[in-house]
Amino acid sequence: MQRVALVNETDWEGWRKATRSLILAGVAPEDVRWSVSSDGEDRHPLPEGHGSFGVSRSLVALASLAIQARDASRFDLLYRLVWRANAGEGVLQKTDDETVRQVQRLAFAVRAETHRMRTMLRYLPVPEKDRTRYLGWYEPAHYVLEANAQLIARQFSGLTFSILTPDGGAHWDNAELRFSAGVARRTVPDDEALLSWWRAHHERLLRHARIGTAIPEAEQLDEVPRPPDRAPVGPVVLPLRPDGPLHEAMQEASDCRRCALYGPATQTVFGEGPAHASVLFVGEQPGDQEDVIGRPFVGPAGQIMDRAMEEAGIDRRTVYITNAVKHFKFEPRGKRRIHKTPEAPEIQACRFWLDVELIRLRPKLVVAMGGTAARALLGRAVTVTRERGRPIELPDGQTAFVTVHPSFLLRVPDEDATAREYRAFVADLRTVAGLVD
Ligand code: SF4
């Protein structure tokens, strides 16, 4: 029995070399036992084979995806396919073949998880000496971290990021992609714990990180030279680019399924305004009319906001307006849809899109209107009356400003109080205008 121990779960290079030796030495699949041993134990010399062989590009592409599946049988299944392909069988044409179907199922699951990881990942900005690092956490269903990190590094080439998962960490510093050990979920149960864990451990983690090699989109298994780092990894959907146009993000958000709110709502209501706006206003969520029309702040609260902005000397056409949550949350009551306040997990899920807007616009000032927007922005529960009306420094260097949500003015019971609250809102907006002058 020939034993092969790969150095990690996505050791493409190790699997490729072992496959080549074993095939050339004529070792049948049933005589090979595959395992993963990161500490070098269980390592056995490979047989020496002579000659060369090649398999089709599509089989290599399929293998480079399937090897990322969290399935212990994948190395063996892939070796079986290569063994048969080397014997002259057109294996990929055999769509009824059980091994082919198993490998295709694995490749499909990996591709889906690759895409899911990119759409689900959200980043916490962590200020460093001369830059901001974007820190992400994700628990992948398959071993897609390395391939995804290569793609994300290409797309986010101007940024610095670290993605932590239980399987490992990926760190991009705008020059080199490095991989480190994983972090258990219980160690970083929420954003706050993740940030403090990162602050305490990142130096040691980065010191021991290894430079990554790519899972390649190879041509011929036998002839492929060692691929350069960050080589393409196959047919996967590209991630959002933080510096890409906003309409690209808007399009992706229209299919968002990150929380359950997309279900009953009519559509995603993304932010709107010029891409170079220096002020970004954040409300809570679209209301009944916004949900139907598909634009933020066009209902009664939007009308009050327009009037107050005009009085404060702010031209709505020059600012960007969005919501912390992009789908309308409501409770049906007869023919009416009654607004419901989004809950923390929904705010947290939708923070992804707010981050995309913040990263792409990089506004001078972010105005949170109401408790939900303030919570989304500051990452904690906020008492609006306590924190309104003054600039608040955000961890990534941006400045926030908290005020009431204009819909609050619609709910004030008596006329005098409404007039007073309206004047206070206009005063806040004047302060906003002064802060970005
Ligand atoms: S509310 Fe936000 S996170 Fe939830 S589905 Fe809609 S866009 Fe996605």
CATH topology call of the largest domain = Uracil-DNA Glycosylase, subunit E
What is the share of helical residues? 25-40%
Compounds present?
A: iron/sulfur cluster
Give the end-to-end Cα distance, rounded to a whole number of Å. Answer: 76 Å
Largest sheet: 6 strands, mixed
Approximate shape: elongated
CATH class of the largest domain: Alpha Beta
Order of helices and strands: EHEHHHEEHEEEHEHEHHEEEHEHHEEHH
Spans of at least 5 consecutive residues with low confidence: 215-239
The total count of helices amounts to 14
What layout of secondary structure does this protein have?
Blueprint: E1 2-6, H1 12-24, E2 32-36, H2 57-66, H3 74-86, H4 98-120, E3 123-127, E4 132-137, H5 145-155, E5 160-164, E6 169-172, E7 177-180, H6 191-207, E8 210-211, H7 246-253, E9 279-283, H8 288-293, H9 300-312, E10 320-323, E11 330-333, E12 336-339, H10 344-361, E13 365-369, H11 371-378, H12 384-387, E14 391-393, E15 399-403, H13 406-411, H14 415-435
Parallel strand pairs: 1-2, 4-5, 9-10, 9-13, 13-15
Antiparallel strand pairs: 3-4, 5-6, 6-7, 7-8, 11-12, 14-15
Residues 253, 256-259, 261-262, 268, 325-327, 346, 349-350, 353 line the site of iron/sulfur cluster.
